[in-house]
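Render this sequence as a predicted structure.
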Amino acid sequence: MGFDVLYNDLGPLNVTFFLDDGTQQLVSVPADQDGTNNYGFIGLTSHIPIKAFEFVSTSGEIVDAGFDNVRIVPLASEVPEPATWGMMILGFGFVGASLRGHRRKAAMIAQTA
């Protein structure tokens, strides 16, 4: 999950992501050189669903933020797709048939010799 956020000159802040298993992930956002922090991207990759997130200004400012470009990207599947399984099974079948054919030819040559 990730998003662009307008911080409204908050300065440094912490973003806490609350995960579905009860754990938390803290992302610290430092201030710019002038002590503010106007705009930036915040993101987190997790195999555990994210339930909520919370902004806390570390300088005591009131949090006034706007969100844009929220991105929720599914993680890559660890199980091959059905088409991949099909191609793999066909490949093993062709390799097995090829090996079987070579054995038959070798046996026929041995019988005729």
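Summary. The two ends are 70 Å apart (CA to CA). The beta strands are 2-6, 13-19, 24-29, 39-43, 50-57, 66-71.
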